[in-house]
Amino acid sequence: MHRLEKNILHHAKKQREQRNFKPLNLNKLKLSIDNESVDIYIDKAQGKEKLQVFYWHIEEWEEDSSVAITVFKAINLFYTDKQKLLKLSSLI
Predict the structure, then answer these.
(1) Which of 86, 37, 42 minimizes the C-alpha distance to 60?
(2) Which residues, listed in sequence order, are joined to residue 33 by a DSSP beta bridge?
(3) How far apart, in whole angstroms, are the C-alpha atoms of residue 62 and residue 68?
(4) Are 42 and 28 spatial neighbours (Cβ–Cβ below 8 Å)?
């Protein structure tokens, strides 16, 4: 790892500690699929709005079929590697 990368990671760690950052419970990551959309989100406490990670609507797939491949890969990562899925979303 390069020196710059180490500095960035160290700085990010310090910021999380200062904010009393709690690591995300990957069990709160949810997947919702219906006949019009795919929604991957973080389920917050009851009564709070969910945090959207990824969302695709059928109109996107109809306009550009390559979007479907991205959706399928995201669904696969949801089941196989949630940590990687979150990294791709830039939420962590």
Answers:
(1) 37
(2) 38
(3) 9
(4) yes
Look at the block and give the residue holding tokens 């399928």.
72
Which residue in the block uniquely carries the two structure tokens 């069990």?
A: 27
> DSSP characters for 31-44?
EEE-SSEEEEEE--
Ordered mean pLDDT values, 10 residues apiece, the chain (92 residues): 58 56 74 94 78 90 88 93 85 52
Q: 30 vs 11, 18, 37, 51, 72, CA distance in Å?
A: 30, 28, 14, 10, 15
Please give the pLDDT value at position 30. Answer: 92
Report the predicted TM-score, pTM, of the whole model to 2 decimal places: 0.68
Residue the block writes with tokens 């950052």: 21
Alpha carbon distance 52, 30 (integer Å): 10
